[in-house]
Amino acid sequence: MNTPLDTPRRRIHVQINGSAVVRDVECRKHLIDFLREDCGLTGSHLGCEHGVCGACSVRLDGAVVRGCLVLAAQADGHAVETVETPTPSARLRALQDAFVEHNALQCGYCTPGMLMAALDLVERRPDANREQTREWISGNYCRCTGYHAIVDAVCAVLEQQRAGRFADEVIA
Amino acid sequence: MKSASFDYVRAESPAHAFTLMAQHGDDARILAGGQTLLATLNMRLSQPALLVDISGLSAWRGIEVSGDTLRIGALTRHVEIEESPLVAQHAPLLTQAAPHIAHRAIRNLGTLGGTLAYADPAAEWPACVLALQGTLVMASARGERRVAAADFFKGLYSTALREDELLVACELPAMAADERQHFSELARRHGDYALAGLAACARRTGEGLNDVRLAFLSLGDRPLRAPACEAVLQAGPLDAARLKQADAALRAELQPFADLTHSAAAKTQLAATLMQRAVRALLA
């Protein structure tokens, strides 16, 4: 979009998917626009842009956040992970496979955010049951699937984890 | 939508934050967790010239117990309260309330102080702090002062904070041995604003409750105590007749606002239901 030329900018240093990135960025720019427009990382999607839909979920210093409710300038000095991290954890890869296997997406718009929220659950709540899974991802909207297939996919990975599939994968 | 243009500065110290506030006055907004502020900026409900990011000021963050007081720094994030063993031990009301606040991704960044200072009457923390009879600690370049929660919430989105002040901590009396705490709320979907919610505390006596404190959210322009109902509940053994009397007292003293989906009468009914459930839980 057109922006005034005198809009305040800051130089920021951000670790994105393990790589150090230095950019000049408009102070008003949120993290998702920064990732998509300035870094070419279009895996994270922008939906409602006011923190409701969850399509923009990314991880900031390891915690899942709304990318539209964080400024790029706030991420200065911090680490960001998106769905397109070039060295995905085995858990993220397993979630991606499970989403395909269970038809847990149709249009795919919510999928990157859904995956990041699900990864957070798998890492932090390994004992989660179906109900807790539903609650954990309740902040991520999907308008196609009706959620059942998504919950199936996430629960399948939780089961795999409990069966020891990722035993040698340390959670950061 | 995209926010209007603004400048962004990280406050390096409390003094730096106060200086920036003094220099920029109403053109500046304080950024703590940003989970409300950034949404309002994106919707252009607010167009400040400067954001002062105070989130790095560690002096105003953290959870500690000293003596009989649980002190939670204003910049402590919701998720830190949710997962704190100290909070679970000394103010379990907060542990119970935390999962009702939006969703995990919001709780990872949103702060206690931001929520209290914003004073949304549908928010969980204001009602909890009111029920717990907490004290809000405010600081400015002039020094610190304390205000009881009952005097802090002044109305819709308005508090006792003065223009040059920031909320820096909340102090809560640690739960007494005979005290019970219970939080519950009703919402159309998990994470939505509550239609009605109740933060309840009381001391267990032989057959009933004493020192009952009920603080409702989403019923008015601020979190609301229900003194008439509380008085009935602590007047003697909690038999069916007294519960009926408490129900009548509550319905008489509440004057809830209607919202988009629920009439005032419906909200009164929801509040009465929450009260009955809370009493059962406090007695359990």
Q: Do you know the CATH topology of the largest domain in chain A?
A: Ubiquitin-like (UB roll)
User: How far is it from the N-terminal to the C-terminal residue of chain B, by CA?
Assistant: 49 Å
Rg of Cα set of chain A: 16 Å
What's the helix-strand series of chain B? EHEHEEEHHHHHHEEHEEEEEEEHHH
DSSP summary: helix tally of chain A:
5
Structural class, judged by helices and strands of chain B? Answer: alpha+beta
Q: DSSP strand (E) fraction of chain B? A: 25-35%
Largest interface: A-B, 35 and 31 residues
Number of helical runs of chain B? Answer: 12
| Low-pLDDT windows of residues of chain A | none
Instruction: Specify the overall morphology of chain B.
Output: globular
The strand order across the widest sheet of chain B is: 4-5-10-6-7
Structural class of chain A: alpha+beta
What is the CATH architecture descriptor of the largest domain in chain A? Roll
Number of strands of chain A: 5
Q: Class of the largest domain in chain B, according to the CATH hierarchy? A: Alpha Beta
Largest sheet of chain B: 5 strands, antiparallel
What's the short story on this structure?
The complex is a heterodimer of chains A (172) and B (284). With 172 residues, chain A is an alpha+beta fold. Chain A is built from 5 helices and 5 strands, in the order E-E-H-E-E-E-H-H-H-H.
